[in-house]
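Tutorial sheet, problem 5. The two components below are modelled jointly, 653 residues in total.
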Amino acid sequence: MSVPLLVVQELRVHFPIRGGWFGRARGAIRAVDGVSFQIRAGETLGLVGESGCGKSTLGNAILRIVDPIGGAVRLGDVDLAALDAAELREARRRVQMIFQDPYASLDPRMTVGNSIGEPLLVHGLARGPKLRHDIESLLERVGLSPAHADRFPHEFSGGQRQRLVIARALALSPDLIVCDEPVSALDVSVRGQILNLLLELQRSLGTAYLFISHDLSVVRHVSDRIAVMYLGRIVEIAARDALFSRPLHPYTRALISAIPLPDPVAQRTRGRIILRGETPSPASPPPGCPFHTRCPIAIDVCRREVPVLTPKSSGASVACHLVD
Amino acid sequence: MNALAQLLSVRDLTVMIARREVVDHVSFDLAPGETLALVGESGCGKSLTALALLRLLPGAAHPGGGAVLFEGADLLQMDEGFMRRLRGNRASIIFQDPQNSLDPLMTIGNQLIEGIRAHRNLPRAAARAEALAMLNAVGISEPEQRLAQYPFELSGGMCQRVMIAIALAARPAVLIADEPTTALDVTIQAQILDLMKGLLRDSGTSILLITHDMGVVAEMADRVAVMYAGRIVETGSADTIFGAPRHPYTVLLLKSVARLDDVPKTPMAVIQGSVPAHEEWPPGCRFAPRCPLAGAQCLAEIPPDVTIDRDRTVACWRHGDVTAGRLPT
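Model answer (structure tokens):
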């Protein structure tokens, strides 16, 4: 196996809960609580989980948009989690990010050409006629016209804005793009266009993606491997087809069975696991396995001991006391 | 179908914003005990249609014609007093965002009890007992304690259960549910849909379900009406809409949704272009600029609703070509 592009080890992000006298910390939200995984060059790792599970915080922590309190994020031989501001700026050339809301991701008062070219200017990679040329070829790369460079964001639809955001992320030829819910804010009929663009760019440029989404059907379509998060931890990580054909963790099984299928006949005939209860707050996670409060098969040990993410013979890694 | 057998009959409903018809001659029927899904992308007018039925349109919008026949009355012609007695009683509505639909300054118990007593002449103690029974029915744990809690103390899924409890407390004939699970996580969505199906099976309530999610439609609906740019383009039973769609938009929309059985990492089917804003709606068929089958007639003339089978209509000049398999995808 080749050397991984990105190695995340025991990453932790806690947010203090302040209150009372002088805003002292009263506790912490453990948004990301000891997460480890790898991404190989050119592959897509899908990261799924429900709201509040810490998946977006994990993406933000990799780029140091939020600072982790522990763990490492190794990109080649640098640890992003340990860099100072100047070193970080340099390292960020190799990792870029795309967010959910293309309306909030572009400065409304800048032409889209200037937005796309800004990373090249900041890093001193192009200016003058070369910058203009680079901006125009980036626009063509994402399926827009070079003539669009002089327009403003409000002149574009949601799907076109997401193309612009992707063009800006590509400007520095990054090795990895963290895509945080990149199609969730788009109309159903436009999502496919953006997913196809991301897939085509990966094929031609070899960019790796960390693809964060709550939509399992979309994640399945774009990913090579998939990690499932629950309450700040990865509970299962496996190759895409293995995860969908043989989900091992009880949460993964419930999650897959809850996907609404756009097919009434299939919907009527499949078995469904309806979980009871609500996701606990990450400010006060339950002792033991974080999922035990909703798990249909939990036993005594699940309430006491935190299960460790362990590699299984199938190649998947699972954090569950009851999976051999 | 016989119009008398319908609980709700909407005829040529039109909603105007700034002199434009953003809901344009929409017609559909809802039978007792039936679930009809009104499905479409954002901006297609599905939520405005729902609001117009109960005369809850926001300030900028107003009805521009048509009729909403419900239990023998045309709701567009009734006075506000009649509508107030109707809403939350014979016809209830729930919205996407349950936390914003509840009063943040009132306990869950007071909101439930107020709702029950507004429509039924019950003493407070009896209304409270009824509220407890409703919370139990919607699967809320520790209902006694919940009565004393405020909305901010409850999760989104919990608030939606409370909304459903309030909406169903008066045993309405119809429940209008506008994206009831869109703001919820998939495992919570599964719980809520399961709950709605059970409660409605028991009570015989009809549902008008407004959603953009084809998976939710497939799970809940008996019949489907597909909306695009202010018009209904196709109606039929859920099985025929999913199994043999006849409008090019429906065909392409179903193909462009990621499925668990498609081939990963291959190009997905797409619909070219984007959903037009209502200032940009074209003069003929509104889907024509994105439709691979569109010809001169499609660009010039609005296609009429054609009944192609019992209880099945399509508004497309080229539906014969779709049936013959000539729609490139």
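Marking note: Residues 19 and 26 of chain A are 7 Å apart (CA to CA). Full credit if you identified this.
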